[in-house]
User: Fold this.
Amino acid sequence: MTKKIVVRTGDVAGFFDRARNAAKRADQGGTFDGTVTLSFEDPQKMFTVLSASRRRIMKEVLLEPKTINELVVRLHRDRTAITRDVGLLEQMGLIISQRQSNPGHGVQKLVSPVASKIEMVATLG
Assistant:
């Protein structure tokens, strides 16, 4: 499991600066701390993609992996909406899901975090 994910805002120049520094560190045999950074140029876009309802899903699975059904009950939301949000968060690399046997009921999807900690950082202006 990744140690930490940082979701942040920043411009393209900042992204390339961080990438250049990481490449230098790798060339010099430096170590990496297990942090993954996802960047958005626009804070509004970041908070649109990581809406309050999606952040609640992330909080729930950070506490303990949960099935889609458990998320539906726990968050009092529609199964279709939860499934759609889980898919988007999975595409973003913030959570993972895997199918598992649910004896007597077929198959269920278990949702887990990809990191033990997720930080969101937005800089305005």
Remarks:
- Residues 2-121 form a domain with the Arc Repressor Mutant, subunit A fold (CATH 1.10.10.10).
- The mean pLDDT is 87.
- Residues 69 and 105 are 12 Å apart (CA to CA).
